[in-house]
Design goal:
The chain is built from 4 helices and 5 strands, in the order E-E-H-H-E-H-H-E-E. It is α+β, with helices and mostly antiparallel strands. Strands 3-5-4 form a 3-stranded antiparallel sheet. The chain has a two-stranded antiparallel ribbon with strand order 1-2. The protein is globular, with a radius of gyration of 15 Å. The N and C termini lie far apart (39 Å).
Length: 118
């Protein structure tokens, strides 16, 4: 049986099984739409599903399915807050911790049409 080690960053445990984590991140990064979501969140800080749907010209359920994959890969996190009317709650997504391999996305000047590929 192989040795399972914890991956630490800033004295926090990121995962116990690096192969599972790497596989989930790799899957999450296979979609141009999810890459564009990451890019938007890096640029804007946080966005709601409705804001992401508008930016991507997608339906909210489609954006939700993409954010679920990014959540499962531990790339983004969700925060619930009251909406602007003070009634009901909205989910706002933000980058959980910027992985080194995608840190440069914030500096790229990606065309807004990238999400139409794939």
């Amino acid at each position: 049986m192989g040795e399972v080690r914890a991956i630490l960053r800033n004295n926090r445990i990121l995962c116990y099984d690096p192969y599972i984590s790497i596989t989930k991140v790799a899957k999450a990064l296979t979609s141009p739409k999810r890459l564009y979501i990451i890019h938007l969140l890096l640029k804007k800080g946080e966005m709601s599903v409705a804001e992401l749907a508008m930016a991507l010209s997608l339906t909210e359920p489609t954006v939700f399915s993409h954010t679920k994959i990014l959540l499962d890969a531990d790339i983004i996190t969700v925060i619930q807050r009251k909406n602007s009317l003070g009634i009901g709650k909205m989910n706002y997504y933000r980058i959980k911790e910027v992985p080194v391999m995608i840190q440069t996305f914030a500096d790229l000047d990606l065309p807004s049409s990238i999400h139409n590929e794939g």
